[in-house]
Structure formats: C-alpha cells, structure tokens
Structures
1.
Amino acid sequence: MNDARGVLDRLGVSGSLRAVSVGETSFDGKGPLLTVRSPIDGREFARFAGATADQVDGVVDAAAQAFAAFRRVPAPRRGELVRRFGERLRRHKDDLAQLVTLEAGKIVSESLGEVQEMIDIADFAVGLSRQLYGLTIASERPAHRLAEQWHPLGPVGVITAFNFPVAVFAWNAALALVCGDPVVWKPSEKTPLTALACHAILSSTVAEFSDVPAAVCSLVVGDGSVGERLAASEKLPLISATGSTRMGRSVAKTVASRLGRSLLELGGNNAMIVAPTADLELAVRSIVFAAAGTAGQRCTTLRRAIVHRTLGDRLLERLGATYQRLPVGDPRTAGTLIGPLIDERAWQSMERALEIAQKQGGRVLTGGDRVVTGVPEGGVYVRPALVEIDSRASIVQEETFAPILYVHRYDTLEEAIALNNDVPQGLSSAIFTNDVREAERFTGPDGSDCGIANVNLGTSGAEIGGAFGGEKQTGGGRESGSDAWKAYMRRATNTVNYSTELPLAQGVRFDV
Ligand code: UN1
C-alpha cells in the first residue's frame, strides 16, 4: 500500500477505502472482503469490503434521480464538464499511470498510453457535445417538417475489465456524460484502486458544477453479483460490458429479458495475414508488439499469424530471434517490454493451452515457460510463446488471455481470409501486404469479418477516433469514436404539421 498511498492521496482518495461512491459521498461495502494484490510481486497492498448487490439498488436510484435533472443541462455544458475532466487527467497522468502499472502490471509506457486514451476520448467527447446531430428528412406531405432528435437515454451501467482499467471506463463515461446519461461503474475487482482514483478525479470535477447533480457518476466495487444486479436493473436502459464472452452472454441474456440495450465488448481471437509482398521488417515489429505486448492481455492481442508459405521460414526465424530477446520483468523498470500476467490463474490457462496445442500437433518454437530469475519474486512472468500449429487444431478457436501466438501457413489469399474468419470471435484483424488488390480484398465485403481490419499494422493499439468493437462472439458493440455515441442516446422522430390541412401519409383517406 505504501507506494499506492501517496499516489492515491494526490488523486484525492484519502482515508479508508470504500466500495461504494455516489459523487463524492462514499459508503463502506457490506459484502465480502476484497484483497488487492499487485501482479508485479503478488503482494497484497489493500483490503476492504466490497459492495453487495443490494447496495447497487440505492446507487442506481440516485443515478436515476440525477438523470431527471442532468438531461436538461445543455449538451455543450455537459461537454464543458468532460473538458475539465480531461484537464485533470492531464495533470494526473503520471500518477494514474503508476496505479495502472501497480494493479494491472502494464509497462509504464503502456500505462501512460492508456491514460492518454482517456484524455483523447475526453477531447473527442467535448467536440461531440456540439455535434449530436439528427437528420432533417424530406416529408411526403406539404407543409410538414420531418426530423429526428437525439435525447439522453438514461443512466448507463458500465462494467470494465482489469486489462484496460481506465481507458474503457473513459470511452463510456466521456460519451455517456456528453449524451446526458449518468454513469454507474463496476470496475474489475482486480483493479479497484485505479477505479477509486478515476472516480475521485471525475466526481471532484462534477462537484465544480452547481448545475450538475453529484450522482451523475458513481462507483460500485464488488464481485460478479454486483454486475449481475446492474444488468438486471430496470432503471439502467443501457449496460456496457467489457470482458469474457461467458460474462457477456450472461449480461446479454439478463438485459435482453427486460428489453434493455447492451453494448458488448467481449473476447477476440485476432489474426494477421502476412502476404508475399509484406515488408517483413515492419511485419515482425508489428507482430511482436501485437502478440507479446501487454503480455498478451489485450482483447486486441494478436493470437494467430497466417503466413504465406514462401515467407514462413524466414518470418519464423526472425520472429523467434526477436522473441528470445524480449525483456521480461518488472514493468516499472525502464527497458522492460513484457510485464507480468495478472495472476496465477492466467498462467494456468496459458499452460493448459500450450499443453493442448502440443497434444494437437503444435510445436512450441520458443517461449511458453515461466521466468524466475531477474524478475520480482511473487509475480507471474512468462516468456511469450510462438507455436506453429495446424489451423484445424481446436485450441486455435479459443482466446487464451496470455502471450501465445499460433502460426499457420497458407497458399492462397482465399484460404488465408477463410482462416482469418474461421473462429467464433470477430474483433480485430490485419494484413501485411504491398499489393493493393489484396489489401482492398481483405478490407472489402468478402474479406475480414471483424470489426477492425487493418493494413500494414497490427491488430492492437487502435486510436479512439474509430468505432471500436467486433462481430460474432465479440458481441457486436461499438464504443469510443465515430458514431458510437448513438448507443448512449434515444432517437425521437418528430413530424410537425404546419399546414391547415391534415393529409395522411401514403395517401390514405379517412374523412370524418
Ligand atoms: C481492450 O483490450 O479491452 O486497441 C481494449 C487497443 C486499445 C484498447 C484495447 N486501444 O488495443
């Protein structure tokens, strides 16, 4: 806790840690104790009671009440709130990144990048607050105006994962707030201090606005039962959830049964095609960042490389050499590129996947072992694994949240695209090629079936400006940039008759 305490104080979280906050008012959790450990060395650095599902109801009620007033605050004014949130994030960037490193185990540069992603989405949302455009549509009737307006939707439940403990929250919160929706946030139990810090930054910004109710932002730290209660809450018209496909399925069912909306960001099983004309130098660098970076713990992590047969050996040789040099270790140390896995369970699933891969005929070319020397004791450090395996092996269909890259070889582009698409998930994808026909084919209607399809760059590290998300078991949601904001608003179609007649649409006659 010592290293975290100073940071927390600077970020406005002082005194004892409390699981429930509505604006700046906090309450003790009444649920089971949460033990917070750093993946860096497995050391426990905080322990406090989590929230119960019953505590969620009061928070949701407060958010619903806040909504009644917040929806009347003009959108550009809501944008001003998000602008000031972004300014505070700039001031606290280093501190927040330090917490991300401590709780999620990311290397410092990636943690800073994650906080930058929050700042970027805040900036985006500020501009958006003056651009929540609806269409004006030609009416078929004389002297009628047909138009649509976008209105605030209601309080939004936001469930986030440990691997992007702050950026994904900000994607949701920045958009929801400019759209006029209060946010109730359930962070991962693995990264609660980061969440407390973010919440403190946001709630103290809200407190500067006398026209904005404090309960536009609230936080409930707890286990899965808290998320389930959020999903079941009738007063939350939208649930935005990031995490495993299993979790998403359960949230989707609950939300659908009350006819609510869900925005899901679930598992990925992302592939890259390396075509004959690829710039190998760039491809290797890009593969290593995407497959081994963040210790393989991004939903956009590259999990499958589909390499043209003519390049296979050369690429594997270079990849293997680079993999062996990767600095694995304390994420706080300059020069480290691969930090720890989040916990022992993550290692177990990595080990299991590697065992199955080998049983299914895969060959581990390099890595896949625990690193025990030169790393902090108590953390789970692994050497990223490169595995050559037949594309028909069933293990390849699964997302294992660890740095394992499966490599397949292909002969025709048709075959490569089919392999890219032949998994249940559909988040991100990429092709390395200097052949414009191949690039266009890959990004076209019968190309990659993923929400993200890149050319000459990796599958991870998307900018906030585009819509982020994927198809199939990835859940279909789109967050962050482009017109993702529409999920956070309700659309009203307005027809206004300013004539002295009452013509009916479709020429219907109904004379009374
Ligand atoms: C995630 O892993 O849940 O594109 C989000 C990326 C990041 C976001 C990843 N900007 O890799």
2.
Amino acid sequence: MPIHEAQTIAQIVTAPGKGAVGIIRISGDEALAIGDGLAGGRGMIARAASHTIHYGWVHDREGNRLDEALFMVMHGPRTYTGEDVVEVQCHGGPVAVGEVLREACARGARPAEAGEFSRRAFLNGKIDLSRAEAIMDLVEAKSDGALKLAARQKSGRTEELVDGLRAAILELIAYIQADLDFPEDDIDRLDKAAYRDRAEGLAHDLEDLVRTATRGRLYRDGITVALCGRANVGKSSLLNALTGRNTAIVTNIPGTTRDSVEANIQVDGLALRLIDTAGLRKTDDLVEQIGVDRAKDIVRGADVIAYCLAAPEGLQPVDRAFIEDHRDQVGLLVINQVDLSDMPSPDLPWPAVRTSALAGTGIDDLGRALKEAALAEAPAAENALYLTNARQVSLAETALQDLRHFLEALAMGVSDDLLVIDLQHAWEVLGLITGDTAADDLLDQIFSQFCLGK
Ligand code: GDP
Ligand code: ZN
C-alpha cells in the first residue's frame, strides 16, 4: 500500500544539456490524468495498460502540438516510486524538455525537489537507505571501480548484511531479556560464555565492515598521489608518462605554463589523482608562499606520497630528511632515470620502483604500485562489500563500540538489565544504515543531496 503524498511531482530526469532524448517523469495520484492531458486528452494514456509505451504529440493547454514524444505508462506499485508514473520521452534540448515540464506543472504537477522521487521510493519501501545512497553515488561515480561498487550496493547487499547483523543482535537481546523476565522458568538459555562468544563474533563482523570501508572510500573518491622530490629528478616527466599511458584528464593550473601540475588517471578501475607538488611552486612571484602552503597541505592529505629520486644522483640528505618527516604516511620511492645509471634500493620504510620517464620503462609498474600501496592500507572485504560513505561508516563504528562496551560490561559482571542497553543501541544504530529506524530530518538530509530528477 503506497504512501500517498499530497501532490503529483514532475521533473526532468535526464542529465542537463543537449542529449538526443530528454525524459520527464511524472509521479503521483494525478500522473495518469496529467500524462493524458499532455498527450491531447483523448484517454490514450488514462486508459492505457500498465507498462506500455505510446507514441503521440505533447500538447499545450490551447491544443497546440509542442513535440513528438513517447509516453511510458506505469501503474503503481510496480514503479520506481511505488506510485503511478508516466514518463514522457521527447527531444532532448533544454527547450523541449523544459516546455514539457512546464506543461505538466500547468496541469497540476509540482516540480520535484532534489531527491524527491527517491524519497518517495524509500517511503514506499521500494529501496532502502543504503541503496538510495548508492544511487546517489552512481550519479557521481568517478571511475569504473566506483561504478561497480555503487552498482553492487544498489542491488541491496549492504542491506542484507546489516539486516543479518541486526537479527543476530536482536536474538542475543531476546535471550538476555528472557533471563530477566522468566528467571525461574525452564526455557532455552545461553550462559554468559555463550553471550560473550556471540557478541565477539558480531564485533568481528563489524570490524571487518569498518576496516574495509576505507577501501570503499578509495574506490569511490579515488586516490590522491603527491609527486614529491628535488628539482629535475623527473617528476613532471613521470606525470606525463603516466598520463600518456592511461585514461587521463590533465588540468593545467593557471600560472604554471611549462608543467601540468595535476592529472587524473585510471589504473584497473581505480581513479588516481596525481599532483606534481613542485609544479605548484613554479611561480616565483607573490603567489609563491601560497603555493608552498598548498603543496604542504596536499602532501599531508595525500593517500600516497610518490617520492622521486634520480638514480645518478642517489639518495641525498634532504631526501632522507623528507622521508623521515613523512614516514607515518603511505609512500613509494620512485627511482627514476635508470636509463642513465642504477642505484641500490635504499634501506627505507617505503618500497621502491625503478623507472625511466624518458625511455618509458617501469611506468605501468609505477601505476600499479601506487594503486597497491594505497589499497594495502585498506584490506579487501571477504565478499567485496563496502560501506562507502562517512555516515554509514560512523554508524557501523558506533555499533562496534556498543558491542565492545557490552563485552567489557559482561566481563565485569554487570547486571543483565544494564547489559541489554548497549545491544539495543547497537541494533538501533545499525538500523540507521538501512533506514529501518530513520528519523525524518535524516531523510531530508540524505535525499536533498540527490541531483534533481533522481
Ligand atoms: P622535475 O623538475 O622533477 O619535474 O623534472 P622534469 O620532469 O622537469 O625533468 C628534468 C629533466 O630530466 C628533463 O630534462 C627531463 O627530460 C629529464 N628526465 C626526466 N626523466 C628522465 C629519465 O627517466 N631519464 C633521463 N635520462 N632523463 C630524464
Ligand atoms: Zn617539474
């Protein structure tokens, strides 16, 4: 039984710009009537069977033909929003789709707000929150890997896993509660050791989920690589060689005429954002200091530091000093110019890769090594299932804390009625990941992040 919200909504659901076709979605109780009016008001749409497509003209209220279109009729609840939906597919220019939307609104629809279709889909039980967020990620996905990850989540695997955890927590609560409520009765019971074993198992699963979340973020947002090193070791050349070999978008930051300072490449489905930090300092005027500060921030915030050396010059004291200062970060040593001479790998915390930007050797290895260095810190999930956004991760972390707290309390011999509080909290918090216990303002916050028309 769909929840009926006050008004029928309409919005352009195709990306803005000049596509070949544009689609206007109309959803709500009046969708069929409004769609029928748009098609000329002769009942073609109102009487159409569900999930059928009809060719016709879009008419304005004076009966003038605006545009040829295909009308897709879908009766609720078997639709994206769970409500009656009519989608009008017309010519893609902004004028055509805009006019059709205006006409739909003139006939009683209201322009949908950002995320409103998905919000209705959620309210009608069509999607859960983690899936809704995945749809949002799909819209914004930056790389193939991110797309696949979002698609996997959209299919509801997060929901399954979280639901499983919640069911197990609830069962544990039930056992403890039974002990409390029927202390004398002869019922199925678990002893304290069994409580502990179960809670430890759950905590372990949650730990996995939280640990692998980092990897999810890397796939979603990409990896930032700071190219560092002394002048003339070959940083710019390496950046160019990497971009020349990969799918790349190179952006020149104004003021740096000679070098590209930033490029985005893809390595095996992972987006790498390469920044030549020296490139940021190339200007020798007033902006210099800004450049230096920015470079420092970028190095500190980078997922991987690629520290470049020139083999003929070897490792010098300034190189050692830099690496020592940044040893808490993930780093890779790039020994460049090996076409001229080689050098032994120095005894440092970072692994080394050998390259020649000039000859083009070792460049593919460098790309892979950068990816591996970043991912090594973020282990893969057993079944490749990740929480991808900060909200989900912090909820899982909170639930994990609750379980640890429960285990401590159990070890200390805290009474049963206090024990269940932590478990109840963990259960509630996990529900927020999928939206089972979602509060209204949270929904607003999440759905308002959607693009218009989703
Ligand atoms: P950056 O200052 O670290 O960015 O260094 P550049 O990329 O501007 O390179 C400095 C000089 O070294 C240029 O003349 C490059 O052609 C040269 N160079 C860069 N990489 C190599 C390499 O692998 N082998 C050789 N022989 N020369 C290189
Ligand atoms: Zn350079």
